[in-house]
Amino acid sequence: MKASAFSYARATSVVNALELLAEHGERAKVLSGGQSLMPAMNLRLISPELIVDIGDLTELRGIAVTGDRLRIGALTRHVDLLNSPEIATHVPLLSEAVTHVAHPAIRNRGTIGGSLAHADPAAELPACMVVLNATIIVRGPAGERRISAEDFFTGIYETALAVDELLVAVEVPVAQKHSAHFFCEFARRHGDYGIVGLAAQAVVQGDVLTDLRLAYFAVSDRPVLAGAATKLINVAVTPTVLVQASAALGAELDPQEDQQASVSMRRHLAKVLLARCVAALLGRPELANAGEAP
Ligand SMILES: Cc1cc2nc3c(=O)[nH]c(=O)nc-3n(C[C@H](O)[C@H](O)[C@H](O)COP(=O)(O)OP(=O)(O)OC[C@H]3O[C@@H](n4cnc5c(N)ncnc54)[C@H](O)[C@@H]3O)c2cc1C
To answer: Whose C-alpha lies nearest to ligand 1, atom 2?
Structure first.
């Protein structure tokens, strides 16, 4: 199938893009890498009347470290994240997660801004932003807004972005001393959207997790920052503690059934990931199979 007829405008500046969005409202769509927008248009899931191509706006590209924050421009492509020494050094979770986003051809064009604005609940990068406590920076007619990643994702393909706003950048705190991360997803093939996935970051002091953030994806209508993490902080983690954390996790997830997995399978896989995550972070392989009560 082909997309419905549409008009095309190549924005010459952020201000110009914002003017076009303000003028056309719901009838316009931003084009970044096109890796989600064009398939959706070709399948006629959406039929915008105007495409605002922001691909030439070089001010929206790039990665820069300032103090204890790392800023990534919205048009930074997945391949640039993958190849960035700044990301590898300061946000290694992201370097690892990006290898799971689609395939090289898509990573060569797809952008971080597009991935976050698209807000697929099974996507990797939204969960990474939540676990990293990132700030999403958007610009609209009234100026700039800074939105915490936890508040940005509001439902399936829904975000706090207004139709006349542009996602311009994200800011991520750089990894602290003693910081460790974990990323794993179950997918039918490497590069497919995950059936269930977990991005985690922790501070590990000796045998104890003194901080732990767990963000699941593909288990709800948006990334889930799991409260079960609190059960694992500042305690000696035993199999019993892990079973308790696992039970708390089961109570807070709201997975959906689809062609890939049932609700119970998703719950089970989420618990498997929790145990593997804690085992990996603490360097205690014996915990990897201790997540569920016998
Ligand atoms: C075969 C295939 C497999 C895929 N597998 C995965 C996967 O495993 N994981 C994954 O996460 N994704 C996957 N994707 C989706 C795709 O990789 C990402 O969603 C994509 O990278 C989005 O970025 P983009 O720049 O291409 O966005 P676009 O397609 O250009 O835009 C996506 C949406 O975001 C809006 N938008 C884009 N940029 C902005 C902005 N700066 N401000 C406001 N709104 C904006 C657009 O209007 C549109 O609604 C896959 C896609 C394909 C075709």
So the answer is: 102
